[in-house]
Amino acid sequence: MKKIGRKVLILALAAAVLVGMTACGGTEKKKEEKKPVKKTEQKKDDAIKTGTHETMVGTTSLKSEQIVIEPALTVKSSFDLGIAAKGSTVYTLTDGKVRQYTWKDSKMTDGKDVQLEKEYKTIELTGDGLLRLSKFMGPYIGLKNGKPAFSYDDLDYVAVHPSGKWGINYFTDGAKVTKVTFSGSTVNQKAFPFRGVHTVRRVNIDKKYIYVCGTDKDSLVFVYIYNFQGKLVKKLKDSDGSGLGSPTFMASTKKGFIALDGNMRTFDMWDKTGKWAGSAKASDLFGVDYPWISGAKLMPDGSLMVIMSQKRPEDKNKKSDQKTIEALVYKVTGFQ
Questions:
Q1: How far apart are CA 308 and CA 332, in angstroms?
Q2: Which of 7, 79, 140, 300 is most buried by a 10 A CB count?
Q3: 334 Cβ partners below 8 Å, 6+ apart?
Q4: Cα–Cα distance between 142 and 161 in angstroms, integer?
């Protein structure tokens, strides 16, 4: 009987302790246990940060500085990212949608969606202050201060001269390209074939030339450079004279020509004659392992603003992040 009485006493004391714990804040301890979960959710908005990098291409020293997007901009598709900028305003194109940011102190903040009726594939900002967006089978539209400025039907992908007065309308066939001239509410087209180009992949225009990433009849990729009259003036090749990967942006500089190769993950350079000068790997110049370098914008100060996609590092404890793709932006200098 003594053993039974002792057990009853122990059970009674244990019950009293549990009641006391509940009365003294046992419920509050359960709330505190939820805090680590909230911190994990916030980390999804933290951007990949790689800082500043420098590397050499021949005798040229290239430097990149990351412009951190806050909160992080995650995307569904690695491809067709675009960027446009003027002053402290930056526009990004991801998954067919446009966002506007404020650029200050190496950060892009205050992001907000630009309202569009359709999804688009290309983005440009011209000297007339118009944000221009194009897609296959149009419409080709322009926005100024967030409001519609024009809309042209019957156009596909459009690359426009920095003045905004004319551009190149293309899809894939190098023989069916047209030159378009804008006049008020109308657009005039005339044939402007890219001779030597079988398939067109990308077109850029600066104040000097028209640049075409395209393939020849053997499916080799080159950068074809035309003057504004449609004459082929240069054909940029790889170091051994063969084809390139998949250039996504092309332009001229004081030292020659540059191209961003999405497929090879490189920053390529040529001298003024079109002779190969070398390339920088994305891992050396940007500090990322396997990005898709998707687009760029030459800035008035001679720098290049570059946008790319990068898969986040795998984390076994966070399955949701293993396939997360993030848009990253960098400012590159030294190539001029």
A1: 13
A2: 140
A3: 54, 60, 61, 62, 63
A4: 14
